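Memo to structure team: turn this sequence into structure tokens by end of day. - J.P.
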Amino acid sequence: MTWTPAKLTALKLQFDSSDGGDMLTPRNREIADRIFSSGGRRPAPYSGIPTLLDAPHLGMDSSDWTKLQVALFGAPMDLGVTNRNGSRFGPRALRAIERVGPYNDALDCAPVHEMRVADIGDVPLQSRFDLQQSHQDIEAFVLQLIEAGVAPLMVGGDHSVSHPALKAVGREQAVGMIHIDAHCDTAGSYEGEKFHHGGPFRNAVLDGVLDPERTIQIGIRGAAGYIWEFSEMSGMTVIQARDITEHKLPDIIKRARDVVGEGPTYLSFDIDSLDPAFAPGTGTPEVGGLTTREAMALIRGMKGLDIVGGDVVEVAPAYDPTTNTAQNGAQMLFEILSVMQFSPSLIENTNAH
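Reply from structure team:
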């Protein structure tokens, strides 16, 4: 093969006068047509009102929610933390990330442009001091989405917010769960409080809204392993972080898919599943965690499962002046939304390929 003037001339004929939105292959053109306007124009990622994943903003009028397939929203509450607080600022931090997506090259989709998705704001919490009231507010909010036929995708907040979300999502039928985290979060009461961020999934199982035998917890590590006996005794599958390697990832993904099966599944991603090298801005960092590449591969490996809701939690931006934690949190939110595009419950109304 030799580079020749004729080849250069041919390339110039194809590309010299084209703009950033002109694509020659059909699939690339289809994506570009959704993102670019004439002249290769698209909105600057740093302009306008920031929203989660730069999705359109839709207000709190629940009558408008029926237009959506997936609702992005924040739950800015961290009253359940056992270590460092600050994840109440997680939704705002993720909204401030100016560029994630819009195209997912691994899954060949542009979910914000190919699904009916919007950022509908934050759960209207009635009290900044009352943990149980906040949980009631989150449950009621998510239940409104479920009743409107909309899949919830939440940004916390501490991990205790997953419990009320699951109470709404699993209200009619207990769901399975893909749980990516440093901690199992199946502990009992601490100092008289059982609704803290270390116990949401024990609570969800005991409430009958989470099926432990269809639950897998991936990335678990740290000195608190003795606390998590509920996970294994209830039938959950636990994958330790030390057992995760690039070579083993395909087997772990297959195990996860086998565990949750074809039923409705919730995907919960705690940012502390990542090693603190990638996500120092969190309440309970644990050394020895996942890389961003491993985490993305795990989420992408869930394509085709019936993901009916999910969350990204525990981003506490004050502990990370680089903003890397929020950047990685936004990326994982994008990966979950991308996978949801292929969920059987949603796929009939999407342009998924």
